[in-house]
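MODEL INPUT / OUTPUT PAIR
PAIR INDEX: 1
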Amino acid sequence: MSAPLLLAIDGGNSKTDVAVVGEDGSVLATARGGGFQPHADGEEAAVDVLAAAVAEALDRAGAPDAVLSHVAAYLANADLPDEEESLTKALLARGWARTAVVGNDTFALLRAGASAGWGVAVVCGAGINCVGVGPDGATARFPALGVITGDWGGGVQLGELALWHAVRGEDGRGPRTVLTRAVAAHFGVDRAIDVGLGVHLGEFDPDRLLELTPLLLDAAATGDPAACEVTDRLAEEVAALGAVALGRLDLLGTPVEVVLGGGVLAARHPVLMAAIERRYAAQAPQATLLVVDAPPVLGAALLGLDHLGAPPESYATLRSTFQR
């Protein structure tokens, strides 16, 4: 067994994955923790969530007190350079490794999926984001702070829209939709409005609205107009993000991989994927769309090996662990 070398962290909104990687690319241990949400919990408390998963992984690797060579942490909500810099300092202060790099988690998705290590990635999980890396190392990215920075989409917003259409279809302010019955049934209530009232009164956790996204896409598959409208809008956003990033990197006319990931896109819902494919065919016909099956923590570990200048065989060993 190789000695521990690298700590790879993928911190998502809903969960954190950690891997301890040996110098030969072997995965010595993994662990999973809670979501990384510094905007809601504060930076120190958010890093505490990472720390719990890191401690578990190091313990499983038989190296609870080891100081590793490097931490590669790719985190949701690390959206601005200043945030990445602050989080890098916070991780170094924990003493896990001698060096650390913090980046947005979409970079890990790109590294996990792009065969050449560059291209564009669009993630749609709880939120939505996009990054691009050119063959020369140039980057394209968006602030991805939500509506205030022009963003639209993500599972949370899709769930809210599913409820919005369900209630309006029920009370007559909007067209009738199959979402009305589906949303009520999912929460075990008689009416869609009872879900909205339940969220308001604290009877339902607002985060549970994320559960409505699959219902929305299933409704679109039946041809429901309200659900189709939202699904088409999401496809527009996924294509617009990728096309703009490709344009900034001067890659619109170049064969390039566009990696899609996050829970909403990784589900490969046929109606949504067909709509996305049509738009890329029109806007970026040289792009090849790839949906990532490997966990984003693989991308974090690969980026860590890049930083350390690891030999090619280490990459092959690492990928074989996560892509069996």
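PAIR INDEX: 2
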Amino acid sequence: MNTVLFPTGPCVLTLVVIAMAFDLHARRIPNWLVVIALIAALPIQIVANGLPNGPIWWIAGALTGGLLLMPGYLIRMLGAGDVKLMAAVGALLGPSTALEAVLVTMAIGGVLAFVALMRKRRLRRGVAGAMSMLITMSADSATAHTEHEHDAARGIGSLPYGVAIAVGSVVTLMLNV
């Protein structure tokens, strides 16, 4: 396991708690929060990894976090704020720990979606909608795409994925201490 240095842990924790609060309240993650985190991550990475490697780890971490969630955004299962937040978390953590955080976040997001379906008693409709979306994802028809987005929204509803990112990031931090 990797070791997370001192300033990184509190910065990630602060970032994800604020983002989660915004996501729960307004269903948005503000750009100013992500920009501040990205700016703060560069000097943290330089101090942690030195000048030649710090900026490389900063970029690689941001790309790891953001690009791994990009398919979810492209099929409209995640918002752009979620992708940007995970990129900022990745910039703070570095590429290998960002990969761990993304994997844990995805697992927690799946659990949260399952719980939401169970609470609304829509598990069958949600699974059917997800399977239908996966089967027709390669279709080029825009009407089929929006039709399945509507089915998925009816099945689960809108989940604040910032909660999954926050919990996944905190669990990753705890596993890497």
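PAIR 2 NOTE: The chain has eight helices and no strands.
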